[in-house]
Amino acid sequence: MGTANQQPIVLFHYPGSLWAVKIRAYFALRGIPYHECIQPDVMPRPDLAALNIHYRRIPVLAIGRDIYFDTVLMLEKLEQLIPGNTLGARDPTQQALEKMLEKWVENAVIESVVGSLPSTFMENEQMVKDRRQFWVTDISIEGQEKRRPQSLANMRTHFNILEKLLSDDRHWVLSTDNPGLADIHVAFALDWIFGIPEALPERFVSDEFPKTFDYLKRYNRAIATANNQCLKLESLAGADAAKLITESDFVEPEGDVEHDPTFLQKRQKVALSRSDESDSSRSVNRDLGTLLALTPQEVVIATEVTSTTPEIRLHAPRWGFAVESVA
C-alpha cells in the first residue's frame, strides 16, 4: 500500500459539471496536481465502463486504485489522506459549522440554484433525456419556466443568510485569513451560476446583498489565482487513465465491516447504488463487488476491472447510498 502523495490522482469529469467545479476548486486552493479524464456529459461513459464502474454521477475521483464517489466523501478523504496545507476547520465548533454549511448548500441552496437556471438550459434534448432517468423534477422548458420564479425567491433567502454571516466584514465565512473548505462549500454553486449567462443577473445580488456580492467576487479571484499557480498535469485519454490506475497501489487499508443494521458480512457479494435514484436507474447504474468495509460513514467494495488486472476498490458515503446482498 502506498500513500496518497505517491499515487496518481485522476479526476473523471466534464466541463461545466457543478460538482466537479467544487473538487477542482479544492485542488486549486491546495495546489494538488492531478490528471483529468474528460467525460461526456451524458451516459454512456465508456472510460468508466472500461474500469467496470457503472456509477452514473460525475465527478469520479481515483487516488491510486481507490475510487471515490460523491464529493462529500472525496473532500473528507483528500483532507485525511494528503497531509500539509489542509483546508478544513480544526476547532470542533468550527468543524460543526463547516459541516452545517455544507449540508445547507447541498440540501437547500443547490435545489434553488438548479431551479434558477434559464429555461434554455432544457433545450439540450440529449441532456434532458439523460437526466430524466433519475431526476424526479419535471425536466422540460415548461417545467423550468414554472419553477424559476420561486427558485429565484428562494435564492434571495439564501443570500440574506449569507449577507448576515458576512455583516461583520469578515473576508471568509469562518473568519480565516484565506479561503477554506467552508468557503468552497458555501460559494462553489453560487460562483458557478454567476458564470451562466441569463441565469442570475448581477444586480440581483449586488444591489440588495453587497457583502455577499463582494464575497463571491473575492472567492472567484482566489480560485482563479490558485488555478494559475497550480501545477498542471496532462489530461488523459480513457485507456491511459485506466492503465495508470490499475498499475497503481491502494492508498487505504482494506477496512472492516462493523455491526450494521443490514447484517451484511465482510466479503459478501453486494450491489452498491445511489438510494436517491429511481429503481430503474439503480438497476442499471449499480456496481457489483465484494464487501470490504461498512461503517456508519462509508461503504467499500472490491471489483475486478478485468480477469487479468488487479482489483480496484470503490468507496461511497454510507449516507445516500444503498448496499444490498446479491446472489
TrEMBL record:
Matches recorded under Gene3D superfamilies: 3.40.30.110
Protein name per UniProt: GST C-terminal domain-containing protein
One Pfam family linked to the record: GST_N_3
Location of the GST C-terminal domain: 91-244
Membrane-spanning intervals of the chain: none
InterPro entries: DUF7962 (IPR058268), Glutathione-S-Trfase_C-like (IPR010987), Glutathione-S-Trfase_C_sf (IPR036282), Glutathione_S-Trfase_N (IPR004045), Thioredoxin-like_sf (IPR036249)
Lineage of the organism: Eukaryota, Fungi, Dikarya, Ascomycota, Pezizomycotina
